[in-house]
Amino acid sequence: MRLFSEWLPDLVITDLMMPGLSGVDLCRAIRSTSSTPILVLSVRDHERSKIEALDSGADDYVTKPFSIQELLARVRAHLRRAPERTESAISAGDFVIDAAAHSAQVMGKALHLTPKEFELLVHLARHAGKVITHRALLTSVWGAQSVHQPEYLRVFVGQLRKKLEGETGKQYIQTEPWIGYRFVPEGLSASDEQGS
Fold this sequence. Notes:
Elements: H1 2-7, E1 12-15, H2 23-31, E2 38-42, H3 47-55, E3 60-63, H4 68-81, E4 89-92, E5 95-98, E6 103-106, E7 109-110, H5 115-126, E8 131-133, H6 134-142, H7 151-168, E9 171-176, E10 180-188, H8 190-195
Parallel strand pairs: 1-2, 2-3
Antiparallel strand pairs: 4-5, 5-6, 6-7, 8-10, 9-10
Helix pairs in contact: 5-6, 5-7
């Protein structure tokens, strides 16, 4: 998921059996935010495994062993049908974020963020207004192995908040106790916070 967020690939090829995050969980995570084609390769040829993968968001399922020519033909077919990406910029509220150019502005001012702060901001902005769980943020930004290390998230959210609030005096990241964080792209002023 970290690589997916960083690279924004045109197509994903995954196995079902992987350490940390299963191929089925990866399909669900990708499909929750993207329509990128997903091709599953697996030694499992049971109908149940195929159905579970396809129901989780996979677009195709290839059983091992297979020929490289068949795999490449399937990749070409999915890329032909994949929607074209016309825009990498996110424009929401006070923010303009260009993931491809790795740049972000708030209220017209450039933000100077570390790679992880930028990745965290992009993920929050793509889900503006929605609560994103600690687990989902950790998996997306740091990988599945980090889900039991929430201190990463607290530190980076704190750093990101300071930079955003320092530029505007508004609060953009709200804490949802015991659940996660919500990104409010219009921001909340001090009086808004007291009134809520």
